[in-house]
Amino acid sequence: MSASTFTLRPYSAADEDAAIELWRRTWSSHYPHLDFNARQPWWRDRWRNELVPAAQIAVAERDGAIIGFVTIDPKTMYLDQIVVAPEHWGSDVALALLDEAKRLSPKGIELLVNKDNLRAIRFYEKHGFAYAGEDKNPVSGLPVNRMAWRG
Description:
This protein is an alpha+beta fold. The protein has a single domain (7-150), classed as Gcn5-related N-acetyltransferase (GNAT) (Aminopeptidase, 3-Layer(aba) Sandwich), CATH 3.40.630. The chain has helices at 16-30, 40-54, 93-104, 118-126; strands at residues 7-10, 56-62, 65-73, 78-84, 108-114, 130-136, 143-150. The chain has a 4-stranded antiparallel β-sheet, with helices on both faces.
């Protein structure tokens, strides 16, 4: 599916509810066995207190609705989240968000990706990221790949 009629723009505080709902809906689609409804208060707290104060956040918008976002901290080069609405998986939205993260953090990007998320691992490898070691997800404790891109 092409989503070529979307635009990228900086996140604003008015986007909070839509971004959090997009996160919940997307992660619920990817991991249907987990209850992301129950995790919303935790996520909202993390969004407000960890991500928004430290990260640059860009949103992809189509017809007035947020269809994706990326969070990148240029100081640490850490990309915490890249989220694309399930109905736009396979479109050019994720690549546009990744390119924006590279623009915002031109020296490089590091991220963690769940080992069972083969689709994401292939996506990052295709776009210049290299495997940089093993790690554990700081929240779930599950094994993850550390991946890195250098500008």
